[in-house]
Amino acid sequence: MGIRFSVLSSGSTGNATLVANGEVTLMIDAGFSAKRIEELMMERGVSGQDLTGILVTHEHSDHIKGLGAVARKYNLPVYANEKTWAAMEKAIGNLADDQRCILGTGETRDFGSLRVESFAISHDAAEPVGYNFYDGKEKLSVCTDLGYASDKVKEAIYDADVLVLEANHDIEMLRMGRYPWNIKRRILGDLGHLSNDATGELMSEILNGRLKRTYLAHLSREHNMLDLAKMTVRSAMEDRGCFFKDSEFKLCDTYYDRPTPWDVVSER
Fold first, then answer.
1. Alpha-carbon gap, residue 252 to 163, rounded angstroms
2. Listed residue (203, 204, 179) closest to 192, CA to CA
3. pLDDT value of position 124
4. CB 17 within 8 A of CB 142
5. Is the separation of the CB atoms in 57 and 129 below 8 Å?
6. How far is it, in rounded angstroms, from Cα 242 to Cα 162?
7. Which of 6, 40, 140, 250 has the least C-beta neighbours within 10 A?
């Protein structure tokens, strides 16, 4: 069947993504109440009983708000590195020992025929990661909440077929916005979030003929807009000599309040 996925919701108010291959179904992050997560899954025909486990990128509340409740209700294993476990332990509450699974940064683990690899990213969390998913020759990369893309991040996501990548804010909207300057400085810094321009620059470096779709994720409701994000990312790519036709490569939306349609990685 290959890899299919749906970004259930993405933004500063919460994040969760489903990745499946017909044999297993994994959730990346659980940043909403358990009730809301169940509602979002139902929109994609999935229940908590269908889940194989939950992968955690980092401990911020918009990524783990419902993690403990969902894991306890459906007796699910939760996978994170040791520093993330230490940072989120109090927030998620008690879990059974067999639900507390360590997946170290840079490690690879097989869930049936779906292979998962974590990689380090730059964000103001204990030890944040992105994830690569492999099934045969297919590769999906999920990479949000990073202040900048290091060479190792570029290497990790370079040969993806489909990419879920942060495009958090428009720089001028953020600068003119109502946030205090210390928060703006955090967002703009190397441990913050990728701007639309930075995402476009990154995309111009990794668009290689294999990558067919990039979903722009974790958009700020205060400092970004769907159309603006796509326009700015595309313009930044073109400014660096990276031109493409929609039949060859597409920029796709994610939403803060609803799931994306199921997408199949092998669909070209």
1. 10
2. 179
3. 97
4. yes
5. yes
6. 18
7. 250
Which residue in this structure is represented by tokens 């199949």? Answer: 264
Q: How far apart are CA 13 and CA 46, in angstroms?
A: 22
Q: Are 131 and 141 in contact (CB under 8 A)?
A: yes
Side-chain half-sphere of 56: how many Cα atoms within 13 Å?
38
Structure tokens at 26: 């994994």
| Cα distance between residue 268 and residue 143, in whole Å | 21
According to the 3-state scheme, what is the secondary structure of the chain? CCCEEEEEECCCCCCEEEEECCCCEEEECCCCCHHHHHHHHHCCCCCHHHCCEEECCCCCHHHHCCHHHHHHHHCCCEEECHHHHHHHHHHHCCCCHHHEEECCCCCEEEECCEEEEEEECCCCCCCCEEEEEEECCEEEEEECCCCCCCHHHHHHHCCCCEEEEECCECHHHHHHCCCCHHHHHHHHCCCCCCEHHHHHHHHHHHCCCCCCEEEEECCCCCCCCHHHHHHHHHHHHHHCCCCCCCCCCEEEECCCCCCCCCEECCCC
Question: Which tokens is 186 given?
Answer: 């955090």
What's the burial of 104, exposed, middle or buried (CB within 10 Å: 0-12/13-18/19+)? middle
Res 268: pLDDT: 45
Whole-prediction pTM value?
Answer: 0.96
Instruction: Dig out the tokens for 233 from the structure.
Output: 């990312």
